[in-house]
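Ticket #4471: structure output looks truncated?

Reporter: J.K.
Steps to reproduce: submitted the chain below (233 residues) through the standard prediction queue, then opened the result file.
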Amino acid sequence: MKPTKETEEQMFRDINALLSPKPIALEAGIRRLENGMLHISMRNVLHHCKGKMLDWWFKYFETTEDLKLWHPHDHVEHGGWDSQWIKNENYIGATIRATESLGDIPPVSAIIKFHDPAEIFDVDILKQAYADGSVSAVVYARIGFGKDTPMDANGDPIDGYMFHVVRDTVQGCTLRSHFYLGAVVADSENKLSDEVGLGLMEHCYSEFTYLSNVLPSLYYAKNKQGDKAPFLW
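Returned output as attached by the reporter:
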């Protein structure tokens, strides 16, 4: 069942809290929402990485080899971007298809369509968060699983939502990842299981930890924006 406007407003009434550096109630864990969906969160510290690097990554990766750098165990296959994706330039409005597993949970296909974060977050709060350094990158997408996952007239998977919110720190950056999943089965007896949520927590922690080990070098070697790597000697 596609979430209604009222359901979205209820789910995301506190979404702007993700833009604050202050602790929030669910930094890492799962909780069942009143509408039956599952909210999954994970907090990662990415050493030596910055928000600009993570934003660039979504404009860069395009092969199964790239996906396996991100998670060598769970990421199985890159199924391709659509024409809205422009390498090194844009991923907003673009849709990606991929196949991945969650640890012991067998591989499943996923469809992810990326959106402008200003569609969900308060525009003024978002601008201020960027201005004062509370965030350095925000990624927002609609997500669905399975080859026949339902999609709306806009081409959005209707099963869930994905957010990655980055804040630069002296260590590198802190990443908050939040997922709201299971809309299709939310009002049935087969709601998305806690097991899937816990598997996604493990997957999310692992993939961004793996990525943090290679992202700085990839960014400085491959990006087209003129950033130069620092001298380390």
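Triage note (M.O.): checked the attachment and the full token line is present. The chain has a mean pLDDT of 94.
Status: closed, working as intended.
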